[in-house]
Amino acid sequence: MIKRISVAFALALVFLCSTAPTQAQEIKGFYQKNCASCHGRNGEKTALNKARKLETLDEAQVIQALKTRRDGKVKGAGNMVKKRLSDENIQQLAEYVQTLSDRQH
């Protein structure tokens, strides 16, 4: 009986792991859907010719920029999206941005 339960649990775990998007995939999807149109797929654009290119910012600068916009301290076109971000989301997004292009930092 225990062996059957163990096998069923293992199969369920494999199924769930293979179908659930990873956290990295979710962050990438969020960036592509909500950020890339203005900032570029690789962070190479100056959003609305106002923001610095994300590819030039380090992780701490990205975190600072996202938090100040989320908290309404800086106004911008993407602030409505940023208001939905938790501190954890911001950290994940900042880490993802660092992977977008070859960096010379």
UniProtKB/TrEMBL annotation:
<keyword id="KW-0479">Metal-binding</keyword>
<dbReference type="GO" id="GO:0020037">
    <property type="term" value="F:heme binding"/>
</dbReference>
<dbReference type="GO" id="GO:0009055">
    <property type="term" value="F:electron transfer activity"/>
</dbReference>
<keyword id="KW-0813">Transport</keyword>
<feature type="domain" description="Cytochrome c">
    <location>
        <begin position="22"/>
        <end position="101"/>
    </location>
</feature>
<dbReference type="InterPro" id="IPR036909">
    <property type="entry name" value="Cyt_c-like_dom_sf"/>
</dbReference>
<keyword id="KW-0732">Signal</keyword>
<dbReference type="GO" id="GO:0005506">
    <property type="term" value="F:iron ion binding"/>
</dbReference>
<dbReference type="InterPro" id="IPR050597">
    <property type="entry name" value="Cytochrome_c_Oxidase_Subunit"/>
</dbReference>
<dbReference type="Pfam" id="PF00034">
    <property type="entry name" value="Cytochrom_C"/>
</dbReference>
<keyword id="KW-0349">Heme</keyword>
<feature type="signal peptide">
    <location>
        <begin position="1"/>
        <end position="24"/>
    </location>
</feature>
<dbReference type="InterPro" id="IPR009056">
    <property type="entry name" value="Cyt_c-like_dom"/>
</dbReference>
<keyword id="KW-0408">Iron</keyword>
<dbReference type="InterPro" id="IPR008168">
    <property type="entry name" value="Cyt_C_IC"/>
</dbReference>
<protein>
    <recommendedName>
        <fullName>Cytochrome c domain-containing protein</fullName>
    </recommendedName>
</protein>
<keyword id="KW-0249">Electron transport</keyword>
